[in-house]
């Protein structure tokens, strides 16, 4: 989306030192670069000093039955890994 592109450009001027983050996104595994945006965003956040809490979550739009399970697991890992979210 255009709003995400604007934010991505603004991100280049942000200092995210001390900020915790995580990235998730959907993609289609039939494409060569499945959910590559997740990797691009993770790289950009780290470049600006952000500490990634967990590895990014890539959801395959072709696997509808797994989406709920993967999202719950991702959230569980976030909660367990981040002291602020654990309380």
Which secondary structure elements does this structure contain, and how are they paired or packed?
Elements lengths: L1 H10 L8 E2 L2 E4 L8 H12 L3 E2 L4 E4 L3 H18 L1 H4 L1
Parallel strand pairs: 1-3, 2-4
SSE sequence, one letter per element: HEEHEEHH
The end-to-end distance, rounded to whole angstroms, is 34 Å
Q: What would you call the shape? A: flat
Total helical elements: 4
> Quaternary state, please?
single chain
**Strand adjacency order, main sheet:** 1-3
* Beta-strand percent range: 5-15%
The residue ranges in which pLDDT falls below 50 over 5 or more consecutive positions are none
Strand runs, count: 4
What percent of residues adopt helix (DSSP H or I)?
40-55%
Biggest sheet descriptor: 2 strands, parallel
Taking all Cα atoms into account, the compactness measure Rg is 14 Å
Give the integer mean of the pLDDT values.
90
């Amino acid at each position: 989306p255009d709003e995400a592109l604007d934010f991505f450009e603004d991100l280049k001027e942000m200092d995210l030192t001390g900020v915790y983050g995580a990235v998730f996104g959907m993609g289609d595994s039939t494409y060569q670069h499945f959910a590559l945006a997740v990797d691009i965003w993770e790289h950009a956040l780290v470049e600006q000093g952000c500490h990634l809490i967990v590895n990014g979550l890539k959801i395959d739009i072709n696997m509808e039955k797994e989406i709920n399970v993967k999202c719950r697991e991702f959230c569980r890992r976030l909660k367990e890994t981040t002291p602020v979210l654990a309380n």
